[in-house]
Amino acid sequence: MIQIQALDHVFKIGKKGRENEIPVLKGIDLSIKRGDIACIVGRSGSGKSTLLNLISGYITPTSGKIVIDGTDVTGFNEKEWADFRLDHFGFIFQSFQLIGSLTTYENVELPLTLKGVKPSERKVKVKEMLKRVGLEHHAGHYPNELSGGQQQRVSIARALILNPSIILADEPTGSLDSETEGEILAFIQQLNREKGITFVIITHDDEVASIADTTFQLHDGVLKKGEQSIEI
């Protein structure tokens, strides 16, 4: 599903012509199978978020190749990436990234609106999805009226609404207590089994990494394949 070859990324800091180059990722080779849960584990500053941003096209690699679902996306422009993300990706964030002025229903509906889905079809899809994540009775609630676990379920519903083949998750349980974390991880595993969605999760949490089919350890920009339980 995801193939990365010889990926390097360098941040440049300073005035043009006098930039300092800071290597962040070094020679990354990564292969993730369709339908797997893959966790990329590492300390803060190890390059995890940079790697996720490269996979999702929000930044461009300095060198190397990225192939997703058989498509070489390395040279995509912004429009091509925007269309590709809508067709292939869902996103789950540590801070939920919900829009505070929108209700649960409206937050989940938003990707469908961006995709140009008809209002009548949106209504059916959103109602079905809210029932799927157990929030059918919270459709009119705003994010600040929901618990952390409920907010993350809204985030997951929004990520699922376009039936993505891949979900990219950035510390998806980092803002949750241990009990709620367990519930969300169980839900991710359930979605993976039932829908065959490929999950790419970045984390520093060994509990999160324990649900992975494959783990990778990122240390100072170098990626190594690891075991399911990793000490960092």
UniProtKB/TrEMBL annotation:
Domain ABC transporter: 4-232
Keyword terms, alphabetized: ATP-binding, Nucleotide-binding, Transport
Highest taxon above the source species: Bacteria
Keyword Transport part of the UniProt annotation: yes
GO cellular component, one term: membrane protein complex
Residue stretches in coiled coil: none
Name of this chain's protein: ABC transporter ATP-binding protein YtrE
Family: Belongs to the ABC transporter superfamily.
PROSITE patterns hit by this protein: ABC_TRANSPORTER_1, ABC_TRANSPORTER_2
GO MF terms held by the record: ATP binding; ATP hydrolysis activity; transmembrane transporter activity
InterPro entries: AAA+_ATPase (IPR003593), ABC_transporter-like_ATP-bd (IPR003439), ABC_transporter-like_CS (IPR017871), MacB-like_ATP-bd (IPR017911), P-loop_NTPase (IPR027417)
